[in-house]
Amino acid sequence: MKQIPRFSFILVPLALLALLCLPVGLVAQATDSASDSAAHTKQLESKTFTLEGGKVWTDTGITLEPGQRVAFSAQGSLRYSDAKEDNGPEGLTRNFKDLIRILPYNDAGRGAVIGKIGDQDIAQPFLIGASKEVTAPINGNLSIGINQANSDTGDGSYTVKVTVYAADANAPKEVARQVSSMPGIDNALFQKIPRRIGDKEGNPGDMVNFLILGNEDEMKKVFTTAGWVKVDADVKATILAGALASFSKESYLTMPMSPLYLFGRQQDYGWAHAEPITVVASRNHLRAWKAPFTVNGQMLWVGAATHDIGFEKDQRNNGLTHKIDPDIDLERDYVEKTLSSTGLVAEVTHFLPKDPLKEAKTATGGSFHSNGQVLVLKLASSGGSSATASK
Fold it and tell me: pTM of whole model > 0.90?
């Protein structure tokens, strides 16, 4: 990691102003059905739920499988104490006060009906509104709720009808399959991959702790679908992007990420995953490089993921830098969970290289520890399942 330029702190007011406009939504974890209507498939179950205004999430008790379609219809109204009028399932129009609210789904208005599929702590919420049809990307539990904070609830209720339809015959039956090995992922490969990334002066830094097999478009899609946001490599680029972009949540999350080096060049991509108000001091972030070689003809991305938990003194120059969580395996696991929740990951494995890196210091003097394993993800359309891999 590198000293944080003081200039970067002026970006916060700019980003706050940027969010005054309606945000451009990230790709939802559950995607809109693009072809056959749910009406043409077998209905599996239908339930009606009441969402009370004083509660955020409701567990439907419905477990979905990949490819199953879910149709929602909602009606009713809520009233917030500071609102001038009632709002329906689409929620209130966003305004300036929304900048200081942390909502479950920041790209929709307060009071909107929302949903999510999968792990409560990882799954990306999606907007339901008055009517919505989605396709489940993974196997997981369905929750529906109201886009509001626990400390700022409304009066009233919604009635939401949920109808589940069978998956198409060609829908995947299993995603993010855990396998014990993948062809080409071996010690011969890791002899070509440096164990650590470094700064411009060559000081060793964060540990390489994940690999992704998939082309560039597939790689970008899995991150954006999981709610990660592309981050610029320096302060000037961030200011320019913030000024020219459509002033959305995305421009607020793209706080600068210092350039670090692997394969003789700085990162090809930086990605961040955080609530916008806390992004400066605390965020999940990673850097990724396209490897100068392939694995069995497949494009390989090599990355280092860490979790910023605050600030500390840079021991090289006494400046200020981000402090990372020393247990970096937690961030590696966070990458696995978020990306696997998209339905875009075909296979998952962990590889322990020869002479694994288990403890070290970053380029700025901070320490970290690991079990030495490297996460490997094969994206769904990057060549199908491994013929020789086993569960």
Answer: no
